[in-house]
Design a protein that fits this description.
By secondary structure, the protein is α/β, with parallel strands linked by helices. It has an 8-stranded parallel β-barrel with strand order 1-2-3-4-5-6-7-8, surrounded by 5 helices. Helix 1 (16-25) packs parallel to helix 2 (41-47), helix 3 packs parallel to helix 4 (115-136) and helix 4 crosses helix 5 (159-169). The protein is built from 9 helices and 8 strands. The protein has a single domain (2-213, 225-245), classed as Alpha-Beta Barrel (TIM Barrel), CATH 3.20.20. The longest helix is centred in the middle third of the chain and has 22 residues, at 115-136.
């Protein structure tokens, strides 16, 4: 598996490209980020190569899958993100069910749209996007988020429902982004669900619980979780999307130590 570091919450004193450069200097082989608009992608491209890549980024920041009135904006966002991904050598885009507002909450569907209708809209929207993704050889990553702490009002807060939606869409280019932090907030022991549905997973996020900090600051057994993933045959990316509790250098050192420990147990980690 490959460790990817999310650039959004680390090194707040540095600009976007400088954060990526520090990650490469620290010996990591992949980065990821949220929205691409307003970021210095030209500078980022100069850092990329065979040993350093963009694992994924957000393919949509506005619009809605749950509300038909937001569908045109949603589709346009995904369409605009695909050539950006191509220019970065990236083949995976993260998707939310609806727009995230500045306070972390989600823009709700109109009151007259029932939850069952919202779910049907999500499936229909992803089915409509699937041929585009297949044609462009792009994987769309639908992400469940927690509604208890970080994202009130978000539609998809259940991995079980997320996997059911991915199955219903029925495209190899639509997969679940399984965020262990978010799902652990919703239901302890959530990695059992992850391991049972691993073929439907296109990317994994991880941060410790509680707090969404780096490994070793909370209750998660990172060694056990990642060894189980490796043992189950997962060879994709694990994105560390976290807010450093002390400092970014110390947090990255913890992740470097974790990688070394996994290698000592026979896990292939880059």
């Amino acid at each position: 598996m490959r460790f990817s570091i999310c650039l959004e919450m680390i090194y707040p004193e540095l600009n976007f490209a400088a954060r990526a450069a520090r990650i490469r200097e620290a010996g990591f082989t992949a980065v990821e980020f949220w929205g691409w608009e307003g970021k210095d992608l030209t500078a980022l491209r100069t850092l990329l190569g065979q040993a350093f890549a963009v694992a994924t980024f957000s393919g949509q920041r506005r619009g809605s899958l749950v509300d038909p009135e937001g569908w045109d904006v949603y589709r346009a966002e995904v369409q605009a993100s695909i050539p950006v991904a191509r220019s970065l050598g990236c083949d995976r885009l993260m998707l939310l069910t609806q727009e995230e507002l500045p306070d972390g909450s989600a823009r709700p569907a109109p009151p007259h749209v029932t939850r069952a209708e919202q779910r049907a809209n999500v499936v229909a929207g992803l089915k409509a996007l699937a041929p585009l993704a297949e044609r462009e050889r792009m994987t769309l990553l639908l992400e469940p988020l927690n509604t208890r702490v970080d994202h009130p009002g978000y539609f998809l807060d259940s991995a079980r429902e997320g996997f059911a939606i991915v199955k219903e869409v029925g495209s190899p280019c639509v997969r679940l982004l399984y965020d262990i932090y978010h799902m652990e907030v919703m239901e302890r022991g959530s990695t059992r669900m992850l391991l049972r549905h691993l073929p439907l997973v296109g990317h994994i996020h991880i941060a410790d619980v509680p707090g969404r900090h780096e490994p070793g600051t909370g209750a998660l057994d990172f060694i056990g979780i990642l060894r189980a993933l490796g043992g189950a045959g997962y060879t994709g990316a694990v994105g560390f999307e976290f807010a450093p509790r002390a400092g970014t250098d110390e947090a990255l050192a913890r992740i470097t130590t974790l990688r070394a420990q996994l290698r000592s147990h026979g896990c292939e980690v880059s």
